[in-house]
Amino acid sequence: MRRALTAAEMRAVDAASAEHGMPASVLMENAGQALAKAALELAGPQGRFLVLCGMGNNGGDGLVAARALQALGKLVHVELMGLAEALEGEPARNGKALKASGVSVGRIGEDVPVGPGDVVIDALLGTGLSRAPEGKYADAIGRISVWRASGAKVVSADLPSGLQSDTGAAQAPCVAADATLAFGFLKVGQAIEPGASRCGRIEIVDIGIPRAAHSALQEPAVYLLEESDVRGRIPERRADAHKGTFGHVLVIAGSWGKTGAAALAGMAALRGGAGLVTVATRPEALVPVMQHAPELMGVELINDGPLGPADLNALLDAADEKTAVVFGPGIPRGDETGRLLGAFLEELEIPCVLDADGLNALEGQLELLKKAKGDLLLTPHPGEMARLLKLQNSDVQRDRIGVVRRLAQETQVVVALKGARTAIAREDGTVFLNPTGNPGMASGGTGDVLAGLCGALFAQGLSSEDAAVTGCFAHGLAGDLAVKRRGQAGLMASDLLDGLGEVWVRWDR
Fold it and tell me: What is this structure's pTM?
């Protein structure tokens, strides 16, 4: 996995680099040379290079790149967002070096025709951005957009200008790059959406930061998952295994009109590797649920209406001798469902996935989670997360990492905030970002599949963290494999079940 840094963490690493004998001049030179190399790889045979530089270190990187390209005999146009005399530190030194090389600095106007084969180097704004670009910077970003629309390629230095380093929010305006060079470390804003999409291809470049400078990094951290991080967490299947080896999942889900939620969660638990799966639901829903797959078993919850305290004994009986529980997809929820859930968790000694209306039942009652005896995993979508923390959906989406970290630390429970780049937070605040998945998965039922899959992983002995990390990655990868057959518009939640089968083939040891 790759650690993703905030702007403050990157500043601390830069300072520590200087303390350990690596001068800023060397870091800037290495960054600028890498920019020039990346630009050359994107350029056509007769391509021109348009370098737009801000007044800070990001601009200094661009000035180095322009000098390197000039030395190779390339046609280079450079624009600086202020007076060269106003540059300070290393950018000032590199501005003088560029002038000595014979490159003139001026506004890149409409008299410079830009099109296919040309490359724009965006070195305007870096990790320090705190507000939307204005004035000359906004104008320059607008021209970059026009040039890209005309066929030029764009490579950004460290971050596309206008992108917030810590949240991934794209300000208005914001550069959309074809490639972004992350200097030293991945940045948090590059690892989450919409920032990840704005960056294009991301290349993490070693610019010479000494290993000793990494000691400046503090916990908790943010990591971007890679496939190698998760595939080994799936337990190996021994030749002498039997169905009991892989656990028995109880799925408490479904109601009349929402039988599909229970069926999808149950079938995902089967496809996720559980040896046995039982669905507990109201009598009128049980037969439709079980008709989806002959491998599913069922238990009737005899009472009528929403789940409540009267169902406690039936649920405890159903959970007896089970290995894991999934609670929530499509359940009939009422005012007393939260009380039931608290009492159930107080008695339940096996791990449990809380999803959908199981989470909504906790609204205003998060203290119920403290009663749980077994491990828990919460899998909210943004709307459910907003209800749990009394926020607006926009608040959740604006700071997905901060919000998921807050809930995990407040409740001391592992939480997976679903959505593009699902964010999984550990109790200590460490966050893992999942890169798999696609917009085709934005349809009803895909969350039910994730809940059932995580329940199966729980049943096979994985911890909350491992079940969440592996389940989210495999779930998204199943969608990525399925979309190759179905397309994004035609993807349904049930398609992920076949996709999971392909994941297990891919990960077979």
Answer: 0.94
